[in-house]
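Entry 14. Ran structure prediction on the chain below.
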Amino acid sequence: MSKLTARLQGVSDAIKNTDALDKILNKIGRKMMGEVGQFMVHSSKRNFNNEQAPDGKRWKKLKEQTKNRKGHSRILFETGALNRSIQVISLGNDKVSVGISGTEVKKALTHQFGRDEIPARPFLGFSKPRDDEKKIKGIVVRHVQREVRQIT
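Output, structure tokens:
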């Protein structure tokens, strides 16, 4: 399985009482991490649709013979199945994994990392130009602050 995982780190520094943190995560963790996961799915699909790596670099163009065979110049697009297969793979109170499952895994790994004559065209990952990590931290902070306000 090809996947990208986000895990909560540093939240316990913001909340000194670990029992309170455990209660908060037990109450809101899955919902919060589900929102993070959906954000990560959307970001990976944007990378895919923009034909660029998470670092913002454009993917290597298709060879002319590939364009002729396909009848178009869209990179990593035949049926749309690979793009549609980007999804939340696992979800817990303190982590979420986004990736590819099912029949598209082998194809995803080939394109994410490259193989033989096929160049790497990564699409899974945190986008630096769009500052995904900051946005994900914002999602976490918003959920935790909302819950802390309700219990104080």
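The CA atoms of residues 70 and 78 lie 8 Å apart. Will compare against last week's run tomorrow.
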